[in-house]
Every structure is written in C-alpha cells, then in structure tokens.
C-alpha cells in the first residue's frame, strides 16, 4: 500500500508492491474498509498501474443511502450505530442527534487528494490523468494542480 504515498525509489520492488496490492484486494474487502482506506487504496492502485481498481475504490459506495436532506437511511444508520457488519466509510458515526452524520474529514480530504493525484499524476508519471483508465472514455480536466511526489 505504501507504493502510493512513497516517491519512486529502487528500495521498493514494483512487483512486490503489485502483489501486495493484489493481496489487499483479496483480504481487505469492502465491508472492512474504513475512513481514509479507500483513498489510500486508490492512490496505491493508480501508482502500480491499475487505474480501474483506483476508480473502484473511490466509487464503490453503493451501500450508502441518503435522503434529499443528506440524512442516512435509518436502517443503515442503526446497523452502523450497533457496529454490525456494515462499513462506516466516509462518515463518522454519532447518535442521538437526529440521525445526521457529520463529515469524516480524513475520508473526505483523502478522497480529494486521491482524485487530484489521479488527475495530475506524480513524479515520474508519463501521461495526463495517469490514475484514470485510458480506454474507458474518461475525459479528465483539471486546473491548478501540481504533481505529487
């Protein structure tokens, strides 16, 4: 996972980084990912050359349900509050205040960092928007971003 946040160095074997990411993919499934885990996994996936998986990590939120006021679906909220097997990704859990979760800042900031990282790239990336698939019709526009380390 660290390949995503470390600058390129000969000390990191790219094949070991790829195999480690694949093992994480097998073991750390959606229901186990918390908070900023998805952005970290997305950045790592982009860096090891798997932009499809990077996109998945940032968009696999189909288990979140919000109404037009941003309130979580009550059943899902209760499952999370009672710590049942449902992920608490992206929003911190609090109870007794009308069922509206506050934003989870590390998750939100990580999401923004991952998207910027994938759009602008990192030192050594060879093309524009290297974290997005080349052949899936993605049109990525960005302004004022700098490459990551």
Main beta sheet: strand number and arrangement?
none
> Using DSSP, what is the number of strands?
0
Order of helices and strands: HHHHH
Stretches with pLDDT under 50, minimum 5 residues = 63-69, 76-96
N- to C-terminal distance: 15 Å
Please count the helical segments. Answer: 5
How many domains, as an integer?
Answer: 1
Describe the protein in words:
This protein has 149 residues and is mostly helical. The chain has one domain. The chain is 39% helix and 0% strand. It has 5 helices and no strands. InterPro entries: 6-hairpin_glycosidase_sf.
Descriptors for this entry?
149 residues; mainly alpha; globular; 6-hairpin_glycosidase_sf
Short overview:
The protein has helices at 14-27, 37-47, 51-59, 74-81, 105-120. It is mainly α and 149 residues long.
């Amino acid at each position: 996972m660290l390949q995503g946040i470390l600058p390129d160095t000969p000390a990191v074997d790219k094949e070991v980084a790829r195999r480690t990411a694949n093992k994480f993919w097998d073991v750390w499934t959606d229901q186990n990912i918390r908070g900023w885990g998805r952005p970290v996994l997305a950045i790592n996936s982009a860096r090891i050359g798997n932009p499809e998986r990077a996109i998945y990590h940032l968009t696999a939120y189909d288990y979140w349900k919000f109404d037009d006021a941003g309130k979580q679906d009550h059943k899902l909220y209760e499952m999370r509050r009672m710590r049942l097997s449902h992920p608490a990704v992206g929003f911190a859990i609090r109870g007794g205040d009308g069922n509206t979760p506050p934003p989870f800042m590390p998750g939100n900031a990580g999401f923004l960092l991952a998207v910027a990282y994938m759009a602008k790239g990192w030192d050594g990336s060879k093309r524009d928007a290297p974290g997005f698939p080349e052949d899936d019709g993605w049109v990525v526009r960005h302004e004022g971003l700098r490459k990551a380390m």
